[in-house]
């Protein structure tokens, strides 16, 4: 047998050629985004309904556990899903070995969390945390079993199946969670939701993939995958810890109620943000991996991805930043009013994070995980410093620090990446500055409109902010030729999605 590793080509599980890649990528994006739209509706329903059935303290207790348990999820994956997706070739035996590694890590981490649950409860001073951590540790085992099944579907570009699973599983989980909440189970309703979603996802992935892992094989080396995964998981751990230092500080200093309010604002924002970032990453990673040696096409797709994020996601975040109060009232209810200023600051953070997000695609698609880890250390230092300093101003101060950090980090991230590999740096900076300029104009105008209509009901205020932002973007397109070309490119991409454009 020919031995293979990431970056080498082997004799089995051959990939499709990248002919017609543009059209295929866009069709894949259509399917994934369509599925994510359904998932977003379900997640939004989860936020809206459960926020009215459960208390901030319930969410705070779960957030305390998730902040710590989330570290285990990164170790459980160990970057092996991305390693399998980006590898030019993956034999069946290697895939089986990766499955066993993920399952073994899941079992080990579940045992570790169960053993340390008492220490975790003592650290937060909340006795309820121990049983919650023990129950959620089961997700390590379930997700460990599911990791390579999902990676296999992504490698095959079977986005219809993936999208269907990503809709059905959370729908079933939400139904069970609502039932548990109505029965008065309090925070256990969220635990039920997490376990149900993981379990249903695993069942559907196994049925879709139609393969059963064989026994581990020594003659199918996975050392290259582990090296890729180690660098990636190290970077992810650094990023995760820096991204969650806000939750950790709030939980330790201000208690479960404050953390519950903060976590609901964060979840409300990320429900929408992830529905754009994650599916685009699902589509972009295998495509860019296949174009990694074609500098021109790689750069073209990278710039396309940035503009798609900039003229969709950043525009939506501008609406959130300008209308945080009515959005909080509509989706969470008046009892969550304290989340509004936090939501506004987190939306601003999301704008800057989106400007640099394409860099993450480059690191993964070109297997630059060691460089990603090194930059993550710098990013973590910036974020932790900003959040710790901001914590002197309470929960809102922490949110402010969280917003300032990516504003400092994103230009550094593109410069750093340009020193490690070939990317169209000037075009990426130019596109980012145009996106940021429009958002900087649209957000305060929309905020003024919302304030002017403060006596209106919440829904008309949100609609007014949306219309104002859209009108600002349209006017910018009419007055500025370069922005008009950007918008035309986004529209062309959408036409390509529907099969009317040309393949890349």
Automatic annotation (TrEMBL):
<dbReference type="GO" id="GO:0005886">
    <property type="term" value="C:plasma membrane"/>
</dbReference>
<dbReference type="Pfam" id="PF13440">
    <property type="entry name" value="Polysacc_synt_3"/>
</dbReference>
<feature type="transmembrane region" description="Helical">
    <location>
        <begin position="462"/>
        <end position="480"/>
    </location>
</feature>
<feature type="region of interest" description="Disordered">
    <location>
        <begin position="1"/>
        <end position="20"/>
    </location>
</feature>
<feature type="transmembrane region" description="Helical">
    <location>
        <begin position="375"/>
        <end position="393"/>
    </location>
</feature>
<keyword id="KW-0812">Transmembrane</keyword>
<comment type="similarity">
    <text>Belongs to the polysaccharide synthase family.</text>
</comment>
<protein>
    <submittedName>
        <fullName>Lipopolysaccharide biosynthesis protein</fullName>
    </submittedName>
</protein>
<feature type="transmembrane region" description="Helical">
    <location>
        <begin position="399"/>
        <end position="417"/>
    </location>
</feature>
<keyword id="KW-1003">Cell membrane</keyword>
<keyword id="KW-0472">Membrane</keyword>
<feature type="transmembrane region" description="Helical">
    <location>
        <begin position="338"/>
        <end position="363"/>
    </location>
</feature>
<feature type="transmembrane region" description="Helical">
    <location>
        <begin position="429"/>
        <end position="450"/>
    </location>
</feature>
<dbReference type="InterPro" id="IPR050833">
    <property type="entry name" value="Poly_Biosynth_Transport"/>
</dbReference>
<feature type="transmembrane region" description="Helical">
    <location>
        <begin position="194"/>
        <end position="212"/>
    </location>
</feature>
<keyword id="KW-1133">Transmembrane helix</keyword>
<feature type="transmembrane region" description="Helical">
    <location>
        <begin position="307"/>
        <end position="332"/>
    </location>
</feature>
<feature type="transmembrane region" description="Helical">
    <location>
        <begin position="129"/>
        <end position="146"/>
    </location>
</feature>
<feature type="transmembrane region" description="Helical">
    <location>
        <begin position="99"/>
        <end position="123"/>
    </location>
</feature>
<feature type="transmembrane region" description="Helical">
    <location>
        <begin position="167"/>
        <end position="188"/>
    </location>
</feature>
């Amino acid at each position: 047998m020919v031995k293979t590793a990431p970056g080498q080509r082997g004799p089995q599980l051959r990939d499709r050629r990248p002919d017609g890649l543009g059209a295929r990528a866009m069709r894949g994006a259509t399917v994934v985004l369509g599925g994510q739209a359904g998932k977003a509706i379900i997640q939004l329903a989860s936020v809206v309904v459960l926020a009215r059935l459960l208390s901030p303290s319930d969410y705070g207790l779960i957030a305390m556990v998730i902040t710590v348990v989330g570290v285990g999820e990164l170790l459980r994956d160990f970057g092996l899903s991305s390693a399998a997706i980006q590898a030019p070739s993956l034999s069946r035996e290697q895939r089986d070995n990766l499955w066993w590694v993920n399952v073994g890590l899941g079992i080990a981490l579940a045992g570790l969390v169960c053993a340390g649950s008492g220490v975790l409860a003592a650290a937060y001073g909340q006795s309820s945390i121990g049983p919650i951590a023990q129950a959620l540790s089961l997700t390590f085992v379930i997700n460990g079993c599911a990791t390579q099944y999902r990676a296999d579907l992504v490698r095959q570009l079977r986005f219809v199946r993936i999208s269907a699973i990503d809709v059905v599983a959370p729908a079933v989980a939400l139904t069970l969670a609502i039932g548990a909440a109505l029965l008065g189970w309090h925070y256990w309703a969220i635990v039920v939701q997490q376990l149900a979603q993981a379990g249903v996802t695993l069942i559907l992935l196994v049925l879709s993939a139609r393969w059963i892992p064989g026994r581990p094989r020594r003659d199918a080396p996975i050392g290259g995958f582990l090296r890729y995964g180690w660098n990636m998981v190290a970077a992810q751990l650094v990023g995760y810890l820096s991204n969650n230092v806000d939750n950790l500080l709030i939980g330790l200093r201000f208690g479960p109620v404050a953390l519950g309010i903060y976590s609901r604002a964060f979840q409300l924002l990320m429900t929408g943000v992830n529905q754009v970032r994650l599916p685009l990453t699902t589509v972009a990673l295998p495509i860019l991996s296949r174009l990694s040696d074609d500098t021109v096409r790689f750069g073209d797709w990278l710039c396309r991805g940035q503009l798609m994020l900039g003229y969709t996601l950043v525009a939506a975040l501008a609406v959130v930043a300008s209308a945080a109060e009515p959005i909080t009232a509509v989706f969470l209810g008046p009892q969550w009013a304290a989340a509004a200023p936090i939501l506004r600051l987190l939306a601003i953070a999301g704008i800057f994070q989106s400007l640099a997000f394409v860099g993450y695609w480059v690191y993964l698609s070109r297997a630059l995980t060691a460089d990603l880890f090194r930059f993550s250390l710098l990013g973590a230092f910036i974020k932790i410093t900003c959040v710790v300093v901001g914590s002197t101003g309470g929960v809102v101060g922490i949110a402010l620090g969280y917003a300032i950090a990516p504003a400092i980090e994103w230009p550094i991230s593109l410069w750093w990446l340009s020193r490690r590999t070939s990317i169209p740096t000037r075009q990426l900076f130019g596109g980012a500055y145009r996106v940021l300029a429009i958002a900087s104009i649209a957000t305060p105008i929309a905020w003024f409109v919302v304030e002017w209509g403060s006596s209106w009901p919440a829904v008309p205020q949100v609609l007014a902010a949306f219309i104002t932002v859209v009108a600002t973007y349209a006017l910018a397109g009419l007055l500025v030729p370069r922005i008009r070309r950007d918008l035309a490119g986004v529209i062309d991409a959408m036409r390509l999605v529907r099969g009317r454009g040309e393949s890349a």
